[in-house]
Design brief:
The complex is a heterodimer of chains A (111) and B (350). Chain A is mainly α. Helices cover 67% and strands 0% of the residues of chain A. Chain B is of the alpha/beta class. The chains are: A mainly alpha (111), B alpha/beta (350).
């Protein structure tokens, strides 16, 4: 076993998941490839969405991959950080909106 | 201003140290050499096609010291092409009718014979004269202020480096204040008609990544540059050439110093595109150094890898037939020209 849960070199082995179950892996990679193709959204817009989600999911592999992807597309540091803030805002908003649930319960059970 | 590797006594200023590095890890155990990649494609030895571009390096002197410069150019470099060699180049071009002459440096405009040479090229009817201008030279000294008019008079195709459409990344790579001067120079080129839609006065920009990563889609980058340069500075240009940084000279020094070398080489190898091999620029180009020696490309020039045919290594012994039959010399740095959509002085090739 590795001495840590994450190893940067494992990102390059992502494709190896086909070794244990090829059929589902092939479907996933086909789907993944299709999703990131230029469509109603540009490849650049999709890359920035992926970067934001990579952060909210806190996936180090995805952050590595999509930071590099953004760099290669000439995305500025400010644009990258704004994308991360969008993710953070949704994440914190999602937390805070649950505060209403807490408030509802407090109000219902309090005199 | 930083010094060139040569002036600062950096060990990579010694070409043998660069070649030693390129021959070492990760190519000893983990990664295939460039030759090993070419062999299964029946592309080794790599052979030239018809000679279409005569690229002349007018000297290594430059008013800038860019961090990635593969020439290791700068104000402290004194190598400069003499009239004797320039005259010989004109004789070669008169006889051999090579369609494109590509002038580079350093800052080619800093060669005192630059204007005379362009006028002579114009007189003998060279089809296309390209000048690789760093832009800031136009604003560096009063004597250069009229360069846009001079370029226009001789219908020179201007190709200029601009690594980003904002100041931060540009100045980080090319030096403080370079972006502002480059913008001013581009506006002056636009003012005389360069880069405008439908204009025959060609103005192209060169993008190269600002670090240890590869360029993405050239068209996408061009669209971003056009949108932002127009919006922020009312600048027009024709095409953007996305060029991969080649791991030699100052960029190699950066890769090693920042501990990115092995990872960058792996990226280049992983991105190897067999379809790019046919279009690599060494197949239709000859690069001439300030001292008249010839190379398969500007990068081989910087690694002192002269053309393989010893009978025609110097312009005094120029022989088109032998040059077009030569074997092109390759090394691990060549992966830079075959990664992704490929890379050349004219941008992507595949």
């Amino acid at each position: 076993m590795e001495k840590s849960y994450y190893n940067p070199k494992d990102l390059k082995k992502f494709g190896d998941i086909v070794d244990f179950e090829p059929k589902l892996a092939a479907k996933f990679f086909d789907y993944y490839g299709e999703v990131f193709k230029e469509g109603a959204l540009t490849a650049r817009e999709k890359s920035l969405i992926a970067l934001a989600v990579a952060h909210t999911e806190q996936c180090p592999y995805c952050i590595d991959a999509y930071t590099e992807d953004a760099l290669t597309r000439g995305v500025s540091e400010a644009q990258m950080m704004e994308a991360v803030h969008v993710g953070a805002a949704i994440k914190s908003g999602a937390t805070l909106v649950h505060g209403v649930q807490m408030m509802n319960k407090v109000k219902k059970q309090s005199m | 201003m930083i010094k060139s590797l040569k002036a600062s006594g950096n060990k990579l200023a010694m070409i043998e140290n660069q070649l030693k590095l390129l021959a070492g890890e990760p190519f000893q155990t983990e990664l295939p050499t460039f030759v090993e990649k070419l062999k299964p494609l029946n592309q080794f030895p790599l052979k030239p096609s018809k000679l279409e571009v005569f690229q002349i390096n007018l000297g290594y002197m430059c008013n800038q010291v860019c961090k990635h410069c593969h020439v290791d150019a700068g104000p402290d470099r004194k190598e400069i092409m003499t009239k004797e060699h320039l005259v010989r180049c004109i004789e070669i071009l008169k006889v051999n009718k090579i369609p494109t002459v590509d002038l580079t440096g350093g800052a080619p405009e800093m060669n005192p014979l630059f204007r005379w040479f362009v006028e002579e090229l114009s007189k003998i009817g060279v089809q296309e004269i390209i000048v690789r201008s760093n832009l800031t030279i136009i604003r560096a000294n009063k004597k250069h202020y009229d360069l846009p008019d001079f370029f226009k008079k001789h219908n020179v195709h201007v190709v200029s480096s601009l690594p980003y459409y904002q100041a931060g990344k540009t100045d980080a790579q090319r030096g403080d204040g370079v972006f502002a001067k480059s913008i001013k120079a581009l506006q002056e080129l636009n003012a005389v008609g360069y880069g405008l839609e439908g204009s025959d006065l060609k103005l192209d920009l060169v993008y190269n990544p600002n670090g240890a990563f590869l360029p993405n889609d050239q068209g996408e980058l061009e669209a971003e540059f056009k949108k932002n340069l127009k919006k922020d500075f009312d600048i027009d240009f024709h095409s953007l050439f996305a060029i991969t940084n080649i791991p030699i000279s100052r960029f190699l020094d950066y890769l090693v110093a920042s501990d990115n070398y092995e990872e960058y080489m792996e990226k280049l190898v992983m991105a190897f595109n067999p379809a790019a091999v046919d279009g690599v620029m060494c197949r239709n180009t000859i690069s001439v150094d300030w001292d008249g020696y010839m190379y398969d490309c500007d990068f081989n020039q910087m690694l002192d890898m002269k053309v393989a045919d010893k009978r025609t290594q110097h312009i005094d012994d120029f022989d088109l037939k032998n040059l077009e039959a030569r074997t092109i010399l390759v090394n691990q740095h060549c992966y830079g020209c075959t990664a992704g959509a490929g890379s050349s002085c004219q941008g992507t090739v595949a």
